[in-house]
Amino acid sequence: MKQSLGARTLLVPTPVLMVGTYGPTGTPNLMNAAWGGICCSDPPCVTVSVRTSRLTYDNIVQRKAFTVSVANEATMVEADYVGIASGRDADKFAVAGLTHVAGEYVDAPYAEEFPLVLECRLLHTQELGLHTQFIGEIVDVKADEAILGEDGLPDILKIRPLVYDTAHKGYHAVGQLVGKAFSAGKKLL
Known about the structure:
It is built from four helices and twelve strands; from the N terminus they run E-E-E-E-E-H-E-H-H-E-E-E-E-H-E-E. The protein is mainly beta.
């Protein structure tokens, strides 16, 4: 029998996403956001939810753009740091030793060290309560060549992305392929 745990944010796992923005004076900033993911195929869109008290919130509202990068095992310390420090108090890029890169298609930065980057223009904003959901149209995806598979697309095992355990506040790695989507269930048809 299942036990009720109440209304809580216990969707396990969630992605570890790095949201890049510029402040009003052009200062680059990064934020760790676990509340996000792909939300539409056409147009291709990603969503991130940010508290209104965060600098990233103000930056997205003002610049109408952001980047979303995928954190991986190699960048775990840096990814965690940008989630616990405030861009109001520190230059997160400098402290974390990250390389600032200006977006090619949007007015937002990303860190070169993260292997997969989505450049997004703000499409919709939805006030939800404590968080505001920003929906960004993906205008370009950038990937390090080292994470691409033979088909030219990102390979999850080469990326080695972090996932976040909302229940225990821990970072985990992804494992081996256990089945093919849109195929494994066909045996029940």
